[in-house]
Amino acid sequence: MKISKIFLYDEPTVPEININKLANFIKKTFAIDTIARKNIFSGVDQTICKQLASCRVFNTRRPFEFHSPSSEEIEFEKKSCQNTSNIENIIMYDGFEFQKTVSNLISENEKSSDSFHLIFTNRLTCTYDFNDYRYHGRAIICSNPSVISTTGIVEAPAKPREYYMELISNMVQGLNLESIKKKYQGTYLEYHDERISNVVEGYAMQAIFYYLTGEPFCEQLECRLFNAHWQKDLIYSQIESAKLCERHQKNLNNLVFNLNS
Ligand SMILES: [Zn+2]
Q: Considering its fold, how many domains does the chain have in total?
């Protein structure tokens, strides 16, 4: 696959994405013309709102079942699209269904295979895992368009095991949970964490690598293509290491060479 243009769509409630900085990073890394755009959901019509509402996951223990949304649910999506900061309670969406819906938002003349689209959303995308028969939050859905969920970045990779243990034992004893959160602060990403701007670079690379090579992830913890299941690992690969492994750096050099020759 070849890409001649990349389009990024911002999630305005998460200024930490720093969409213009990200566009520059991609342009510099892949030597591909990259354009940053505003939220793709502003001004969507009733049909799309209905489709979004029907992607909701109601039973996390069962594979996706198409849901016929109520008018309240459609109205909720409409409001969320107009003002994305409205999302207070986290709602789960089937990531693949959600991706199909947002692909309808790409204009026909920009749907060619050499145009790559990357959409940010604060909706939580999830995928059903047949290994443990349940839905899991996902930070990224790789396809074209790819979707990066900012809520997924915060919620999907797990916090330290000890954090959950302490949280549960303190909840049972009715103790203050804030002190535990404080104790572990910094070891995981929080909402409006300024480190999100570094982390989205890695996720964007995964999406672009997937489209160009069919292989988004790497086994090496020090590589930005590492598929982190723990916050600790995400922070390590994207912020402390912040580079590609040797093999993927070579791949990237070849990609850039081929794309520009
Ligand atoms: Zn690698």
A: 1
